[in-house]
Design a protein that fits this description.
By secondary structure, the chain is mainly beta. The chain is built from 2 helices and 20 strands. The protein is globular.
């Protein structure tokens, strides 16, 4: 076979494989479908364009101008270590043409946090939210931070109660089996079973002496941090755990 013909066939073969991988041919297309919760989908669709954060009982919608190529958001309760990317919402204009209406990130309010501080990362530059007029200056780092006062914050969260118990709370899908484990039980994952007190809310009261405790929840064999408690730490082997202080 002529060498030039062989090279062309080889290049066509490589091109076909690249197109095959990019288009996802041979995969079950239904697996790629992601259905957003109704309330989340509703506030995204009903937001006409970029503006100040929109607050509901379950979500906070952050938006940005679609003229930007990349936008991300980082929160104080995650120590600004995680950047959550914005997604473009595509709408239809008066001429029937599809066009980006806004960029958005929808935060699910799983924590009992009445005030949230955050910064945006717009095309690689860390800055405050230009659409949120509420800002706060931090003297320790000489920076401004955007602020959301999330009124009516959810009361279901892990906390130390007045009667000497720690009230552990975890949010998950309804019908799960959730266990509690931590430094108070030598990390045995099968001693304490959380009770589903209402759909998706798992609770347990545990008497603990004064001190600092590290813990996680387990769904099956999978550990997860407390999504109602913003206090986190890392173990010596690099695992993230939740922290509760009793005093």
């Amino acid at each position: 076979m002529n060498k030039s013909i062989f090279n062309r066939i080889f290049l066509l073969f490589l091109l076909f494989n690249v197109v095959f991988m990019l288009t996802g041919c041979g995969e079950d297309s239904e697996k790629k479908i992601v259905y957003a919760p109704y309330e989340q989908d509703k506030i995204i669709r009903e937001t006409d364009g970029p503006g100040a954060p929109v607050i509901t009982d379950s979500y906070i919608l952050f938006t940005a101008d679609p003229k930007y190529r990349t936008v991300g958001i980082a929160f104080d309760f995650e120590d600004y270590k995680t950047v959550h990317p914005f997604t473009a919402y595509i709408g239809t204009d008066e001429n029937g043409k599809q066009t980006p209406k806004h960029l958005f990130y929808c935060y699910e309010r799983n924590h009992k946090i009445s005030t949230i501080k955050y910064r945006l990362i717009i095309e690689g530059l860390w800055t405050t939210d230009p659409l949120n007029p509420v800002k706060e200056y931090d003297d320790d780092v000489n920076l401004y931070f955007s602020v959301v006062n999330a009124v009516n914050a959810d009361n279901y969260n892990t906390e130390v109660t007045e009667d000497g118990f720690v009230h552990f709370v975890y949010r998950a899908d309804p019908g799960e089996e959730v266990w509690l484990s931590g430094s108070f039980c030598n990390w045995d994952p099968w001693i304490y079973t959380m009770h589903e007190t209402r759909p998706g809310i798992y609770e347990l009261n545990l008497p603990l002496a004064d001190g600092t405790y590290y813990y996680n929840y387990y769904i099956g064999f999978t550990p997860t941090v407390d999504n109602t408690n913003s206090q986190k730490a890392y173990t010596s082997d690099g695992r993230m755990v939740s922290v509760i202080k009793v005093k």
